[in-house]
């Protein structure tokens, strides 16, 4: 099967108070097109850093990230942003919606950035998909956590991403809302074949994926198929 993501010898270090802090140490793995993958590990083990590098939000210290056949290391920040706009969806634990924009406007932003047409109608469609058409004129602070996460999903779906990266997508949600969000994410995988890479502490969410990658102290310590794999 083709891979949408190839990570080779990926390392990330930070300089702090004259010392070098190694956050990721020579990570290697590939992700097959259309697959579902969980990244798990203790707090501080480097999961968020790894996801950010895979999605082109940040740059590695050494090693390579190849996303959809494109070597991200060779790109400028603007070029990486372009790759993200075209191929990548990203959702965050704390939603990261723009507080001064309504739900509808938040979903319209990436459509606008890509210079697309009929963006209002498209954004309304996306909000409808996540069951929020009646909340389209609400601001993020007027929405519950689950509703905000569903707006951020609508925003992430807006470019029909080939790959969705989700960083603790249910970390701030109650059990019932978390089930709804998980269903939306897996529906996207089933219906559109979108590849999923999700960082999670939630064993139930991890068990729903086909594969679990374990990170500890910046190293990949296990890479296992689940019963779905
Ligand atoms: P996790 O997602 O597994 O909790 P993170 O990737 O957020 O782990 O962080 C891994 C380590 O990298 C932590 O020790 C964190 O303090 C450190 N770290 C993350 N970002 C920076 C930064 N910009 N500067 C220095 N250290 C950082």
Automatic annotation (TrEMBL):
GO cellular component labels: membrane protein complex; plasma membrane
Record keyword Transport present: yes
Record keywords, A-Z: ATP-binding, Nucleotide-binding, Transport
Alphabetized Gene3D superfamilies for the sequence: P-loop containing nucleotide triphosphate hydrolases (3.40.50.300)
CDD domains on file: ABC_MJ0796_LolCDE_FtsE
GO MF annotations in UniProt: ATP binding; ATP hydrolysis activity; transmembrane transporter activity
Signal peptide: none
Listed name of the protein: Putative ABC transport system ATP-binding protein
Organism: Mucilaginibacter gossypii
Species classification: Bacteria, Pseudomonadati, Bacteroidota, Sphingobacteriia, Sphingobacteriales
């Amino acid at each position: 099967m083709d891979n949408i993501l190839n990570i080779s010898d990926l390392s990330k270090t930070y300089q702090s108070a004259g010392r070098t802090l190694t956050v990721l140490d020579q990570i290697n793995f590939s992700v097959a097109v259309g697959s579902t993958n969980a990244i798990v590990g203790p707090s501080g083990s480097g999961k968020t850093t790894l996801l950010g590098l895979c999605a082109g939000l940040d740059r590695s210290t050494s090693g390579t990230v190849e996303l959809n056949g494109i070597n991200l290391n060779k790109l400028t920040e603007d070029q990486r942003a372009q790759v993200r706009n075209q191929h990548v969806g990203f959702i965050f634990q704390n939603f990261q919606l723009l507080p001064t924009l309504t739900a509808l406007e938040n979903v319209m932003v990436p459509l606008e950035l890509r210079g697309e047409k009929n963006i209002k109608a498209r954004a309304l469609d996306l909000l409808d998909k996540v069951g929020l058409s009646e909340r389209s004129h609400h601001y993020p602070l007027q929405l519950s956590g689950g509703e905000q996460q569903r707006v951020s999903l609508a925003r992430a779906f807006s470019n029909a991403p080939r790959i969705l990266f989700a960083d603790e997508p249910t970390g701030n949600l109650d059990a019932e809302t978390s089930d709804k969000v998980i269903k939306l994410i897996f529906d996207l995988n089933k219906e559109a074949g979108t590849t999923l890479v999700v960082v999670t502490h939630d064993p139930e969410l991890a068990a729903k994926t086909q594969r679990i990658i374990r990170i500890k102290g910046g190293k990949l310590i296990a890479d296992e198929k689940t019963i779905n794999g």
